Amino acid sequence: MVIKTHFEIGKKVRKTIEELGGTMPENLPSTDSVKKLERRVKSDDKKLRKNPDKLSE
């Protein structure tokens, strides 16, 4: 019952997106993974700690 309801709601959501002219989820651009973003933030943080003058740029 729950799986059927989930499927039906998903179908209605997709139909509504299509009717409104929105971008379907599979056509949206992909984003970086959370892990990749966490590594980037950590790396940037280390760089700023070594050279705080970069912060004002």
Structure characterization notes:
- This protein is mostly helical and 57 residues long.
- It has one domain (2-56).
- The protein is 61% helix and 0% strand.
- The protein contains two helices and no strands.
- It has helices spanning 2-19, 34-50.
- The radius of gyration is 21 Å and the shape is elongated.
- 0% of the residues are buried.
- The mean pLDDT is 90.
Q: What's the helix and strand layout?
A:
Elements (H helix, E strand, L loop, with lengths): L1 H18 L14 H17 L7
Question: Which features does this protein show?
Answer:
elongated, single chain
**Regarding quaternary structure, how should these chains be classified?**
single chain
Number of domains: 1
Q: Report the total helices.
A: 2
CA gyration radius, whole angstroms: 21 Å
Q: End-to-end span in angstroms?
A: 57 Å
SSE series: HH
Q: Which blocks of ≥5 consecutive residues have pLDDT under 50? A: none
How many β strands by DSSP? Answer: 0
> What portion of residues belong to β-strands?
under 5%
Mean pLDDT: 90
Bin the helical content. Answer: 55-70%
Question: Biggest β-sheet, characterized?
Answer: none
Shape: elongated
SS class: mainly alpha
Give a brief description.
With 57 residues, the protein is mainly α. It has helices at 2-19, 34-50.
